[in-house]
Amino acid sequence: MNQSVERSSSDTLDTLDTLDTLVVGAGFAGMYGLVKLRQLGMSVIAIEAAGDVGGTWYWNRYPGARCDVESMEYSYSFSDALQQEWNWSERYAAQPEILAYAQHVAARFDLRRSIRFNTRIVKAQYDWNTQRWSATTDQGDTLHARFILMAGGCLSLPRLPDFPGRDDFEGRILHTGRWPHEPVSFDGLRVGVIGTGSSGIQVIPQVAKAAKQCVVFQRTPGYSLPAFNRSLDDEFRHWYKLNYSQRREKARYSVAGSASHPVPTRSAFSDSHEERAETYEGAWARGSTSFLRCYNDILTDRTANETMSEFVRHKIRATVKDSRVAEKLIPKTHQIGTKRICLDTNYYETYNRDNVRLIDLRRDPLVRFTRTGIQTESEHCELDAVVFATGYDAMTGALLDIDFSVKGGASLREKWRSGATTYLGLMTAGFPNLFIVTGPGSPSVLANMITGIEQHIEWIADCLRFVRENGYTTVEADPVAERQWVDHVNQLADATLLPQADSWYVGANIPGKPRVFLPYVGGHGNYRMKCADVAFQHYEGFLFGRGGSAQDTSSVSHSERMSNNG
Ligand code: NA7
Fold first, then answer.
1. Same domain? 400 vs 383
2. What does the alpha-carbon distance between residue 105 and residue 93 come to, in Å, rounded to a whole number?
3. Predicted confidence (pLDDT) per residue in 373-401, tens digit
4. Are 460 and 556 contained in the same domain?
5. pLDDT tens for each residue of 434-463
6. 145: CATH
7. Domain residues for 202?
8. Closest CA to 415 of 445, 452, 440, 444
């Protein structure tokens, strides 16, 4: 064990004043950040708000929580020993198993000694004079580091809509993204669930099984596919492990960061209606979000998309026995794939149970919470507990939750007032030495998160090595390169149907959030090659500096670097 752990002498929690890098978060991104930066011999610690590692999988303990990427792929590839020794039990791993895996990684690479848990960074300010970040915690102390690696997650700031009277409710309120550690029993209770996104469709069947009554409050129905989850056997695991290196490489250059997703080469219109139906049936039976990859124009051509949307609507009608309920569950206001597609186990079947009711909030809006339940325009629902499956302030929430600023300059909250802008999703101009993992402007939530995390951490580690080897002390995004990248990200997004839906991809779930399409739609593989090319071109689009104060910091342009390095 631990042969691959490279320790620097100064990466324990008692060296907080002399840090090279402060990592924010100890989920999958933060943990790999620690591993990689230790390998560079840097002093590095992570600050984590939770009581242990795991990020999303630490917090999302609700019954039914499960990953929608296959477990053999939703795992680190950086250590062959790790991927060979770990045995996933199911095709799509449930939360306890993913959390156990994260804990195993933390122990195997001896990470916890470099993580301060139950601590949140609330503010971080960069000072050009010292060329350091000063990060203030909610415990009242300040940490100083040359670099910050922001690994706070893309879907980590839960959203609890401020319904009128919410605090008057005397029953229990739970949020899927902040689920208690102790078991929650719904036995014999009347439970409301608000929200029918990925979390809602997973928790609702579980609540319905346990509760006396389950009332679902739905604002927008989504498209969900059966996951056809199953146990994995030794034979399959053995085959996969033998082929791991090829599978991982394929994933790294794929659109979605997954080896198992097919690459569509044909238009939906190259097939007849019957042929398309057959293709959709075959893809449906695979039980994967790769369903969207049946044809290459599903996400770009509304008519092509409609053939697939209609196929799924038909499936919903065929599953839900009460046709009035089925009609409420059928998405009509957005196209399939334009909001995140869901994978479920018995979601639509759950509406055939006698103890489940669906309230369509578009027809019967939620008016207020009362002491004993929820009042809609047409009725009062008596409830003992309400589960909020109402999502997150996606992609920018965790970043803006920290008050990032540059001394004497702008704050990130001001800079991003009309929308997040980054260069490659890795840095934002004007904020030196602040790296963002899977940030807005990178493929991020549109691809396998762990593939994206590994690519970002490795790129950042290479960049930091470049900084060190060239005697630089600062690196930041060039505002011109950032503008061009933002334009490119928008152009690609606008060529698809995705920005048209009111999704969290565009921030539409957060009142007042600027409507900007946040992730990069050009595909993980293309993005990886772009990042590699930027690095190869001596970090084109990044500005490097050296020196101890603002006065003697000499900024080194890209053309100088090219001529110096040949
Ligand atoms: P999502 O996908 O943002 O879903 C949140 C759900 O909550 C969605 O159905 C929302 O309806 C609903 N919602 C949000 N606010 C309200 C209010 N005010 N009233 C009624 N309904 C509301 O979050 P999830 O946690 O399910 O999934 C997030 C990601 O985590 C997921 O994609 C995976 O990657 C993991 P809306 O559609 O906005 O009308």
1. no
2. 16
3. 999 999 999 999 999 999 999 999 999 99
4. yes
5. 999 999 999 999 999 999 999 999 999 999
6. 3.50.50.60
7. 166-234+261-388
8. 440
Q: Are residues 522 and 430 in the same domain?
A: yes
Ligand 1 site, residue 196, Cβ cutoff 6 A:
yes
Closest CA to 494 of 527, 462, 520, 463: 520
Residue 270 shares a structural domain with residue 361: yes
Instruction: State the helix-helix crossing angle for 28-39 and 95-108, rounded to 10 degrees.
Output: 20
Answer yes or no: do 151 and 173 share one domain: no
Q: For residues 521 and 505, what is the distance between their CA atoms, to the nearest angstrom? A: 11
Structure token digits, residue 98: 């993913």
Extract the tokens encoding 34. 């620690």
Q: How many residues does the chain have?
A: 566
Q: What's the pLDDT score for residue 265?
A: 94
* Distance from C-alpha of 49 to C-alpha of 52, rounded to nearest angstrom: 8
Closest atom, ligand 1, to C-alpha of 220: 39
Does residue 150's CB lie within 6 angstroms of at least one atom of ligand 1? no
User: From the CA of 278, how far away is ligand 1's center (Å)?
Assistant: 31
Structure tokens at 216: 């679902």
Is the C-beta atom of 198 inside 6 A of ligand 1?
yes
Strand (E) or helix (H) holding 542: strand 542-546
Q: Which atom, in ligand 1's list, is nearest to the CA of 161?
A: 18
Q: Does residue 240 sit within a domain?
A: no
Hey, which of 199, 216, 368 would you mutate to test ligand 1's pocket, going by the most ligand atoms within 8 Å of its Cβ? 199
Q: Which residue reads 């122990």 in tokens?
A: 107
User: Is residue 247 in some structural domain?
Assistant: no
Q: Does 230 lie in the same domain as 207?
A: yes
Last residue of a domain, one of 343, 372, 388: 388
Whole-number Å distance, alpha carbon 395 to ligand 1 midpoint, is: 14
Judge whether 196 lies within some domain.
yes
Structural domain total, the chain: 2
| Residue in 218, 504, 509, 513 to alter for ligand 1 test, most ligand atoms within 8 A of Cβ | 509
Which is it for strands 121-127 and 132-137: parallel, antiparallel or unpaired?
A: antiparallel
Q: From residue 514, give the alpha-carbon distance in Å to each of 163, 400, 484.
A: 22, 13, 20
Q: Are 268 and 133 members of one domain?
A: no
Domain C-terminal end among 368, 388, 408: 388
pLDDT tens readout for residues 267-300: 999 999 999 999 999 999 999 999 999 999 999 9
Residue nearest to ligand 1 atom 18, measured at CA: 161
Residues 489 and 368 placed together within one structural domain of the fold: no
